[in-house]
UniProtKB/TrEMBL annotation:
InterPro entries: Stanniocalcin. Belongs to the stanniocalcin family. GO terms for molecular function: hormone activity. Transmembrane segments: none annotated. It is found in: Secreted. Keywords: Disulfide bond, Hormone, Secreted, Signal. Residues 1-18 form the signal peptide. Its main location: secreted. Homodimer; disulfide-linked. Its primary function is the prevention of hypercalcemia. Upon release into the circulation, it lowers calcium transport by the gills, thereby reducing its rate of influx from the environment into the extracellular compartment. STC also stimulates phosphate reabsorption by renal proximal tubules. The consequence of this action is increased levels of plasma phosphate, which combines with excess calcium and promotes its disposal into bone and scales. This is Stanniocalcin. GO terms for biological process: intracellular calcium ion homeostasis. It comes from Myripristis murdjan.
Amino acid sequence: MLARSGLVLLFVLATAACFEVGPEEAAPRRARFSANSPNDVAKCLNGAVAVGCGVFACLENSTCDTDGMHDICQLFLHTAATFNTQGKTFVKESLRCIAQGITSKVFQTIRRCNVFQRMIAEVQEECYNSLDICTVARTNPDAIGEVVQVPAHFPNRYYSTLLQSLLACDEQTVAAVRAGLISRLGPDMETFFLLLQNKPCITYRNDYLLPPNVLDCDLR
């Protein structure tokens, strides 16, 4: 049973890590109950302040499927006290950088969901890189390990962007992140990291799961 559960976890994580938006998703998906339209999201972002998680709360429950950044923001804030001085600065500045980047580009991208989704991920990655997430992760492995948890909802492209940013770091940093996740989630995470580093893409054909090497995908 434990082995089966581990395989299920691995599949879900790999699916999240490979998630990308196809051409058919260029328009907003069918609205969920009480879901926010792109116009609602734009208005919310226009009035939000780039401090805390207010901007990211605007992205939740959207017909454009932009959930995920709010959870990441909350995780960073909840673990901020465990980071060193540089790490605390990174938490504050990265959240502000992403929030400001999203709000500055929302009206240029909100009309097409796939463009809006991609913009958020690109801003997220740019902010992580410009603020040196690799050094922060290397010097705060336990704190980063608390942040890099399995997201509550799948698929989650922004969790994937966070992981990919960490896996693009030097070997020492990647090893620290890997060790932290394996200690929390078990040995199946080692296979998950191999999948991530090879950037496979899990896909379906006639409702059957195809092997990871059937289709290569670029998260961007």
